[in-house]
Amino acid sequence: MARAAGNRNIQAKLVLLGDMGTGKTSLVLRFVKGQFYDYQESTIGAAFFTQVLSLNEATIKFDIWDTAGQERYHSLAPMYYRGAAAAVVVYDITSKESFQRAKKWVLEIQRQGNPNVIMVLVANKADLDTKRDVGNEEGEQYAKENGLLFFETSAKTAQNVNELFYEIAKRVAKAVPLRPGGMKLHRRSQERGRRLFCCSGSSPFGSDDCNINSW
Q: Is the dihedral of CA 44, 28, 35, 62 positive or negative?
């Protein structure tokens, strides 16, 4: 997709959280590579991806951390969601347990994460509607009560996958106001940028000195 003239370039850290088997990796692969595999090996620790989305108002480069869902990796999660601009919490519509676990992730991010983080609750595997254990209304209501965006997706059919990430990108762009005439931010906005955006694509530990990047 072509960039608009004079477009801003914004680099943003995005993290996916949720139980093992909810389809986090499948969502990322569908978004980044347009691929889906019926069998996807479990992520160990975390996997890293990048993807660029071009909007009218900005071009967003996502640094995406896909975290492992196994309990033994839970203690590592703060390394990945610290400094994230957006957190995507995923559950499987066929598993009530994964929905309850998603609620715990939401609480953890709210307590320990950035108060300005864009948080999205994602009900994945919509293609398995006949095996549904969590109603759409239930997930949507929980998201509404907790101030979250809500999407029901299917990595297999690509339902709402691009829409999910484009909505996040639009909100990221709105969260970074620019002065007329250039990339520089007001000091207050710049400090907010330090909290929201990570410029470290090579380390899971991020950086306390991160800011908006040009690339």
A: negative
Cα gap 122→99, rounded to integer Å:
10
Per the structure, the complete domain to which residue 44 belongs is given by 16-196
For residue 37, what is the domain's CATH number? 3.40.50.300
Instruction: Please state the domain count of the chain.
Output: 1
Q: Confidence band (pLDDT; 50, 70, 90) for 74?
A: confident
Per-residue pLDDT of 23-37, as tens digits, reads 999 999 999 999 887
Give pLDDT tens digits for 189-208: 334 444 444 333 333 333 33
Q: Give residue for tokens 């590592």.
A: 76
Residue 126 lies in a domain: yes
Three-state DSSP string of the chain: CCCCCCCEEEEEEEEEEECCCCCHHHHHHHHHHCCCCCCCCCCCCEEEEEEEEECCCEEEEEEEEEECCCHHHHHHHHHHHCCCCEEEEEEECCCHHHHHHHHHHHHHHHHHCCCCCEEEEEEECHHHHHHCCCCHHHHHHHHHHCCCEEEECECCCCECHHHHHHHHHHHHHHCCCCCCCCCCCCHHHHHHHHHHCCCCCCCCCCCCCCCCCCC
pLDDT value at residue 170: 96
Residue 130 near residue 164 (C-beta atoms within 8 A): no
